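Hi X.,

You mentioned you wanted examples for the new student's onboarding notes, showing what a folding record looks like when two proteins sit in one file. Here is a clean example. The first protein comes first, with its sequence line followed by its structure tokens.
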Amino acid sequence: MHIRGEWIKNSEFFDESTGQVLAAVVERCEQALAGGKLPVVVFDLDSTLFDVSHRSYEILKDWAEHPETIRFVETREKLSDLKPSEMRYSLEDVWEIKKIPTDVGPFGHHFKHAKQFWRKRFFNHDYLIHDTPTPGAVEFVNRLYAMGASIVYLTGRDIPLMAFGTFDQLKSHGLPIEQERTRLILKPKRHLDDLEFKCGAAETIKTFGKVIASFENEPKNLVAMAKVFDSDTMNVFIETVSSDHPAPPGKGIYRIGEFHF
């Protein structure tokens, strides 16, 4: 089992460029349609179709300006020049970049407070307006949909806190939703395990048509779903940010960083 960089080093990726990978998805959709089958393409949302760094940045910015943090002078000063580009998957990563202790003296209390503040707002719809599409994502998804493919958004976001905001987000950025051949699949409850939820959903998605490709930024989800989908499904790793959750090395995986040809 490996995390992040170790997982990438120990996994086997096809030696194809971003353009080649995306072109192959388009070609396989065309072949499925020509054979009378419905091509299905699956997309994760956070850190796959959407860059969430600005969401986290705005939450931390609001935290630093909140009345409750006025006394956190040292931490506020160290975060005063924080940039959206310095945001990573977790606050631990951000604190490491800014060289702020997370478990020493008052800094430990500050970090705990910031993490609680961030968690409450990140897993809610209020800050989704700050997400930006991954370069080329909107155009690529719409191209597939216009061809006749079915688009499935499979996300670890939950229905109670994020459903309405997610619908609005997809629509506002011009992604196909609430139309024939589109589905948004969210967790029915927030605290369901993402891996278990996505693997279960993958079993259902297989009944929709011919699953051409699945795009995912989390190694553990990607590897597990690859075992559910057919052997010829293209499992595409989006190399953006991901958690430290360990995953077994992947084999036969495609890799891209954005959706531009």
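Then the second protein repeats the pattern, sequence line and then tokens:
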Amino acid sequence: MPASPFVTVIPGDDPPQIQGSPHLDRLRAYGEVVLYTDRPKTVEERVLRARDAICLLNSRGAVHWPREVLRQLPRLRMISVCGIGTDAVDLETAHELGIVVCNLPGRTAPIVAEHALALMLATARRTWFQTNELKCGRWTSQYNLSLRGKTLGLVGAGSIAAETARLGRAIGMRVRAWTYHPSAQRAQSLGVEFVPFDELLGTSDVISLHLKLTEQSRGLIGRSELARMKPEALLINTARGALVDSTALADALNAGRLGGAGIDVFEQEPVPPGHPLLSCAHVVLTPHNADQTTEGMEILNSGAVDNIIAFLEGRPQNRVE
């Protein structure tokens, strides 16, 4: 147990994720837990909520911790995120200030990969389009896409990509991949062939994104990349919205230069009215909930609390370097 009391702050649990979780009782055994059920609307509100925190449990990646906020939190020693992505935290500043950042690498990979497959199948079989046509009183006949025998191109080679590769092979797809850092060992562990990025774009029937968001990967899929894809190809994104130029994607879909898209993540969340993808016919959209199953929430909530307790007991785990 820590030698002195401490405060853990959950700065904006909206939509609800960890509120009501029994894992918070484990955390309360170590000190005060302050939970906010709405998101902070301003920088000042974020600072006010977190100013007494020694630990932050960032249950929602939409609550961001940039340099100008972190520098105003002299008590803060640790941030635990509920997932693998850490793009909501300015890692350079956190490291500079001695703030430990911990994530949950690979814990929900099978659950997210299952969602990627669901988006793939729903997009290929045009389930939203056909449901909407029937609701509007139209019996519209349009060919769907069979995935068996088609090529799945994975952008990224982490744990979610590995699970997506396994599911793709299970339904008879050929799987290829691209990553910033290919190696024979990674190819063997993933069970796929690595190919150049342009080749992956031009030869895949489905492109599925599994990269973390960095300055290098931001905007990776833009107009020129979409133009290299097959006109009937599908784009699936369960990674981060800012990997894709949404306006360019909507233009390609509306012009018939792409077969469809299954999107779980967006540059701005919640999605604002008038977002270009909302007007597209051949899309399947979900509200960044790929890991939000009963099992997924249990894994994330327990893991985030485990990381804080491990830090407080002097044995930090899952540190992001």
